[in-house]
Amino acid sequence: MARILIVDDEVDVLIFLARELRDQDYEVETAPSGEEAIEKIKANRPHLMLLDINMPGMGGLETLKKAKEIDPHLAVVMVTAVAEEDIAKDAIKMGAYDYIQKPIDLDHLNLVVMTKIVDLTG
Known about the structure:
The chain is α/β, with parallel strands linked by helices. The chain has helices at about 10-25, 35-45, 60-70, 85-95, 105-120, and strands at about 5, 25-30, 50, 75-80, 100.
């Protein structure tokens, strides 16, 4: 079963996305901060991470950089507000797989996640 880590400082977003992805039969973990995400990556090696760009403390780009140092093969999908699109494009240059915008379109989210998981797991 594919493992997905969702990282967002908004608890409502974590709950909503976790429920949606668990309904798609993914193993899902959540982290409310970049710092906690790094610990979960070290411990559990997820296949894919949904990572919010704008978080207090360790922001999304710093979390992306550290995550890729730990696991260069980790697929990262950045989650961004429309105003952060340029930052999301920078994240792709840093190794992120893709980005999605808030408010999140669940059909688009499922397509992005499924496409990458199939690519990773065959």
